[in-house]
Amino acid sequence: MYGAIFGDIIGSRFEFDRGGKTKTFELFTNQCGWTDDTVMTVAIMEALTNAGKDADADTIHTECIRSMKKWGKRYPNAGYGSSFFGWVLTDDPEPYGSFGNGSAMRVSAAGWIYDTVERTREVAKATAEVTHNHPEGIKGAECTAAVMFLARTGKSKEEIKEYVIKEFGYDVSKTVDELRPLHEHVEWCQDSLPKALASFFEGDSYEDVVRNAVSLGGDTDTLAAIAGAMADAMYGVPEEIMVQGKKWLEKDMLDTIKGFEDFLQNKKDLKYC
Ligand SMILES: [Mg+2]
Questions:
Q1: Is 200 part of a structural domain of the chain?
Q2: 15-53 per-position pLDDT tens digit
Q3: For labeling, which of 125, 157, 194, 230 is most exposed (least CB within 10 Å)?
Q4: Residues 6 or more apart in contact with residue 119 via CB below 8 angstroms
Q5: Ligand 1 centroid – CA 114 distance (Å)
Q6: Is 208 a member of any domain?
Q7: pLDDT score, position 17
Q8: What CATH number has the domain bearing residue 154?
Q9: Is there a domain that residue 30 lies in?
Q10: In angstroms, what is the span from residue 36 Cα to ligand 1's centroid?
Q11: First and final C-alpha spacing in the chain
């Protein structure tokens, strides 16, 4: 559950190329912190919990809008883009055609809940299109959640790669080493997904995948959030990272994640907020 969130926290201190584009660094230091990726990941966890497993798209839209605006106002200084924060504050939130990587960084809850890849993609699309209704914004969210579904249901990296190429058409031919010198700070799905995917396909553990993503530079917190979500679904988060990472989170975030975990285990059908 925490894969995207810890990726965000670990990557946060290197955003805007403040790192050395290296895989060798301390995972957690006092310069780390959660950013918008964590706040919105928690918001989507809450929204999908409240919507229930069988919700239709309209219900998912309503719950996503409600939770994203609530959490965005609660933590207004988390590093949102200006268009998104305008959406958080407005009384009449409408999608604004974005293909920013925000749709992919917040979607990971959808990767954990559903029984088929088709349903996973349908819900991922619904979480994206309340803001990121550009086809690339929707594709980034669907791909992230689909990779998570396939990873947690036992598909191999090769099978997942084939699916990604066939269904989404991303270029996944370049290695992390080949991508690293090319990388600039671009916050688009069509730039971030191939980089997060390369980090995931090449890494051999949660930590290795996150280190790959951070080593690319640029939008490191979001790259590590997207790749970290995929890696969590395949490998899980190791206990020592779990213990360290949780220390950075606020109580209301931990409570909401716990509510999501209970929902996944069918302990709770009732709304909790
Ligand atoms: Mg961020």
A1: yes
A2: 866 777 899 999 999 999 999 999 999 999 999 999 999
A3: 157
A4: none
A5: 26
A6: yes
A7: 66
A8: 1.10.4080.10
A9: no
A10: 5
A11: 19
C-alpha of residue 59 to centroid of ligand 1, in Å: 27
In-domain check, residue 273: no
Distance CA 39, CA 244 (A): 18
Expressed in angstroms and rounded, the spacing between residue 270 Cα and the centre of ligand 1 is 31
pLDDT tens digits for range 133-166:
999 999 999 999 999 999 999 999 999 999 999 9
Distance separating alpha carbons of residues 25 and 22, to the nearest angstrom: 7
Q: How far away, in angstroms, is 79 Cα from ligand 1 center? A: 6
The token duo for 234 is 């395949």
Calculate how far, in angstroms, residue 71's C-alpha sits from the geometric centre of ligand 1: 14
For residues 50 and 69, give the distance between their C-alpha atoms in angstroms, rounded to a whole number: 15
In the chain, the number of structural domains is: 1
Q: Domain span at residue 242?
A: 3-19+35-264
Q: What is the pLDDT of residues 70-98, one digit of tens each?
A: 999 999 999 999 999 999 999 999 999 99
